[in-house]
Amino acid sequence: MAEEAPAAAPAKAPAKAPKKKSAPRPKKDGPSLPKLIVDAVAESKERKGTSLAALKKVLAGKGVDVSKANKRINTAVTKLVTKGTLSQTKGTGASGSFKLAKKEPKVRIASEASRLAHYNKRSTITSREIQTAVRLLLPGELAKHAVSEGTKAVTKYTSSK
C-alpha cells in the first residue's frame, strides 16, 4: 500500500477588512425631552392637569416625532412623577393627567413631618414622623425603599459613635 501524504492544512480565509465607523450622530439642538414635557405642562392652563394625549399633541407641535419617541415620552413622564417634578392627578403609570408639583419633595417631607409632630403634641421631629411622612408622600415601592435606606443610614451613623 502506498502511503498517503497528510492532507495540507486548509488555507486561512483572508482577513476581513475592519468595518468603517459611521460618523457619530450630530447632537440634537434644543431642550431635552423631559424639559419639553415640563414646559408643555407648565404652559397648560388646565386646573386638573394635562392628559398624556394632550401632552403628546403639544410635543408634536414642538417638532417631536411622537410615534418614534412614544416609549421615551412615557418613561420621561413616569420619571418626572417619581422625581417629584410632576404630580399625577388621575390614572397610574404614564397614563392619566399631570400637573406641576407645588413644592420640592424634601420640603414637603419636612413640612409633613413637622405637622405630624405637632399633631402628636411633640416639640421635636423624630425618625418615626419622618418615616410616616415619607410613606404618605412617596408612592408605594419607592416609599419602602426610602424608609429602609433612611433606617440603614441612621443605624450606621449611631453605630459609628
Automatic annotation (TrEMBL):
Residues 1-35 are annotated as: Disordered. It comes from the Eukaryota. Residues 29-102 form the H15 domain. GO terms for biological process: nucleosome assembly. Keywords: Chromosome, DNA-binding, Isopeptide bond, Nucleosome core, Nucleus, Ubl conjugation. One of its GO terms (molecular function) is structural constituent of chromatin. Its main location: nucleus. The keyword Disulfide bond does not apply. The nucleosome is a histone octamer containing two molecules each of H2A, H2B, H3 and H4 assembled in one H3-H4 heterotetramer and two H2A-H2B heterodimers. The octamer wraps approximately 147 bp of DNA. Belongs to the histone H2B family. This is Histone H2B. It comes from Poecilia reticulata (Guppy). The lineage of its organism: Eukaryota, Metazoa, Chordata, Craniata, Vertebrata.
